[in-house]
Fold these 4 entries.
Entry 1:
Amino acid sequence: MTSLVAKVGSIVPRESGERVLCAAYVSGSGSSIGSAVIAVSDRHLFFAPRSAFLSRGAWRTRRLDDVRIESSARRSISLAGARRFEVIDEDGYAFFFELEQRKEAAEFRKAFGRRLAAKR
């Protein structure tokens, strides 16, 4: 069975040498953009509706250098890492998504790396 990262990597429009680092399904209740598939490469953030993610034209892209990414935990005191991420682009457009599994959230935090800012 092909992993979600491999599926997304074969569909999204990537630049030469760009690698998809992680991908996850996001429920409609855990996202301001509805039920979606979200992926992070070493240069871009990709997202598409879950019902159409196999279509190349359904994917939207944000350059990681052009967005601010903040993370927050569901509870005020959390021993685990944050699972909710908010993406704010340079035009002020923002959306959020929440990952259900700690493992996925850790992969996204690692992929965002230095671009991940603390919640203001």
Entry 2:
Amino acid sequence: MTQQNILGSDNVDTLRSRGDLGATLSDEGQYLEGEKLLREVLEIERRVLGPEHPETLRSLANLAATLRQTGRYAESEKLGRETLETLKRVLGAEHPQTLTSIHSLATTLQAEGGYSEAGKLCGEVLEVRRRVLGPNHPDTAASIYCLARNAALQGENDVAIPLLREAVGHGLPQDASRGMETDASLRGLQKDARFEELMSEIRQRNGAPLETH
């Protein structure tokens, strides 16, 4: 029997599992299926748990991310801002879920070209994560990477590449560091010898070849 059959479709654990599946489908490029499932989960959570329950807010954040992935940046930004405002009020400005939401909003702003605000948000999250989690936590490294992407998108290679090195050296997960070579945000760095050198070091460190350009 499935979890839904055993616990019921309105059970919090069931809803979380279905929401996680929706987010995973979106991450794998199955956007229509992912969005449909996330909206179904969200509707139940709003009714059963309430609009300000952490699980409801988690689903809202996942939906905002899916909207961004499908290029619906204005919708994603609007939903992301609304979710963030509620998270700050309900969980606090430094709660991990709130920080993740800020990071996600910054990513949406970068896609829209709102680099100034995106950089400010990435910096705010980095400051908190350094203080609370320490300099070598993967989430701290992700915030450094956020700043690096922001600089790269603006053609600031001299800023972006040292930040990428810092992120890699301070706990950026292996899949993220290897994914740098195909990250569209870093496309402007790919002809920079310093970036090629960094990617070569990452390939050697991970012991697995990557495609070269």
Entry 3:
Amino acid sequence: MRAADFVAAAGAGQQALFAKWLNERDCPSTPMDRCIAPAIWAETRLHIIVYGTQLEAGTNRYAAEQWQKQFLDQFESAVRIYKDFEVTERELADHDVLFIGRPETNSALAAWAKPLALDYDGEVFQLAARIIRRKTTLWC
């Protein structure tokens, strides 16, 4: 997915936020417009990583560990990693989730595909009524 596709899929209500972050050099200085994205990502306790074990478990685990390492390197705090079958509905509902693996490899993502409005079939997925064809895709 290209950044432009992501921005378009986010909808009209998010365009002002994207414009501010993508087009301005410095963070806005007013309290209402202050930079929040770095602070949000720095709150690693709010995030979890869930990797698929149905297929490609080793590859998905490795990818999850690499993402965990990125958080640790950048924010000096580790994000918890869960296997798809061990994460609870409460954990999924209470955290920002980084899913590793396609729906057929990650049972947690497969269970959340409908609530996320994710229509996936092999190398083709539909997000926000837009069909995207990719051989490799980052699911998050």
Entry 4:
Amino acid sequence: MLQQVGPPQEVYDRPGNIFVADFIGSPAMNMFPARLQTRNGDVFADSEVGSFRLNSQQADGAMKASDGEIVVGVRPEHLYVGGDEGSGTVSTTLGAMADLVEHLGNESHVTFSLSDATLVARLDARVKIRLGETVPLTVLVENLHLFDRASGQRLL
């Protein structure tokens, strides 16, 4: 069944549902279940990976989830080792242990474990990660994809 129509980059940047998000891109988008919570007027997506404070646009879109249960997605190239690497002002840093490092010449694919979750990061080859090393992984909130857990549809 046809899931989404559009230019390839648009489909990659704004997948319409979980199936498309998982299908387009290699390595695949990292996805994990989360629950929406409001604290001190801010909306957070709380998951086993970490707690992400959503910006106002994301919070408005996420509130469309029928029961507050969502799926958070982040592309491997949007995980950064160390501090904030982009233009976003809101980020979350997670402590992650390297389980697998694949050196591919110009880049490395590193599989990290956090609690019971696994994340894959696409990193510049000059970023040196050793097996078993725990490093700070930063996710810019502007790079998160949010999906309704029940329907699988994109929330914004």
